Amino acid sequence: MSDKRDYYEVLGVEKNADDKELKQAFRILARRYHPDKNDAEDAESRFKEIQEAYAVLSDPEKRRQYDRFGHNVPGGSPFGAGGFNINLEDILGGDFFSSIFGGGRRSSGGGADIRIRHKITLEEAYTGTKSELDLDLPTECLSCQGTGAEGGSTSTCGTCRGQGRVRVRQQIGPFISDAVQTCEECQGSGFTHDADCGDCGGAGSVQQSQTIRFEIPEGADNGMIMRMRGRGEPARRGRGQSGDLHIEIIVEEHPWFERSGMDLIMSLPLGYSDFVTGCDVTIPHIDGKDLKISVPAKSNSGETVTIPRRGMPSNRSRGRGDVIVLLKLVMPSKFSKQDLKKIKEMKEILDGDLSIIERMENDAKLRRHSSS
Ligand SMILES: [Zn+2]
Ligand SMILES: [Zn+2]
Q1: Share of the chain above pLDDT 70, in %
Q2: 246: burial class by Cβ within 10 Å (0-12, 13-18, 19+)?
Q3: Ligand 1 center from residue 231 Cα (angstroms)
Q4: Could you read off the pLDDT of 329-358 as tens digits, one per residue?
Q5: C-alpha dihedral (116, 122, 128, 130), degrees to nearest 10
Q6: Which pLDDT score is estimated for 192?
Q7: Tens digits of per-residue pLDDT, 35-52?
Q8: What letters, b where the CB count within 10 A reaches 16 and e where it falls short, cover 142-160?
């Protein structure tokens, strides 16, 4: 409990904020972080946090308790998940919801999101690809139509008369307010039943193999998340919207390329003579065409050769990255005595006529110049 953020801090208000200030702060934050308006990873958890903070602070009794005990209320927290009901439509305005849900409303009893990971090669990330996956996903139980009731036979909940919500009259000081809460008896579904469905054990959903088809855009990056609306867990008791299926894209390691944004980086190990004379190296590339790397004569180990516009495509714009090749001097693992003798004879040629100090100074100049 202690790692929970302070409710006043969550809403960004003073400890003595009045109802109007609370409502104002909540309205702004809820609009900003509503998961259907905000694609950020943490939008949903932020939204829940904001909702919980407001639910507690806007309720005088709960606020008094919170002010006194903080999150460590004796006998456990009364503010647990789902234990609060805010009429968002009232606070945010009906237009907010119609613009998200196309006129409809998502019930608070919707199904949970599901996340899976999907591996692709760098080549597939380069071109984009159509993927097909066979997954075991929770699906609405057909025997009970997702109600969880044996044979699907439910009866209207007597407590809420099928509304799923009940009005609770509260007295706040001199005021009487009507609050709408989810019916506890039927958990908001409006239905109750006597016997659980035998096929799903009353859960309303069963694991079922499904074929999921989706398209990965060109330039897809590691960690990219594709959302498929409504393909997550079905809503409990067949009421409300299903959750979403989130597919996280994992791009497999390539044998020689590393990715840096849109650029592809590789190192090219070459022998001494290639550095001296220069050379052309042709290798297969992920775009299906050959990649020709031209190493200029008298190159130095540690220098780079850039091949423009052969890197990754952007998944946002028409741009394309470069291939950046790091030239690296590589030694053969064995030399014969004769080889060593020949090399020693060539020492003057190979080493050049600069002293070690001059070489160090030149290299430092070059390095400082190129990095500035
Ligand atoms: Zn069932
Ligand atoms: Zn009910």
Answers
A1: 87
A2: middle
A3: 18
A4: 999 999 999 999 999 999 989 888 999 999
A5: -50
A6: 87
A7: 766 777 787 788 878 888
A8: ebbbbbbbbebebeebeeb
Least distant ligand from the CA of 238: 1
Taking the CB of residue 117, how many other CB atoms lie within 10 A of it?
Answer: 10
Grouping H, G, I as helix, E, B as strand and the rest as coil, residue 280 is strand
| Residues whose beta carbons lie less than 5 angstroms from ion ligand 1 | 141, 143-144, 197, 199-200
CA–centroid distance, 166 to ligand 2, in Å, is 8
Distance from the CA of 229 to the center of ligand 1, in angstroms? 23
pLDDT tops 60 at residue 310: yes
Torsions phi, psi for 245 (to 5 deg): -100, 125
Nearest to 83 by CA among 114, 113, 48, 110: 48
Ligand whose nearest atom lies closest to the CA of 160: 2
What distance in Å separates the CA atoms of residue 307 and residue 292, rounded to the nearest whole number?
8
Q: How many angstroms separate the alpha carbon of residue 194 from the centre of ligand 1?
A: 13
For residue 371, pLDDT over 50 is answered with yes
- Do the strands 129-140 and 205-216 form a parallel or antiparallel pair, or are they unpaired? antiparallel
Write the CA distances from 48 to 7, 29, 80, 110, 265, integer angstroms.
Answer: 12, 11, 11, 14, 42
Ligand 1 center to 228 CA (angstroms):
24
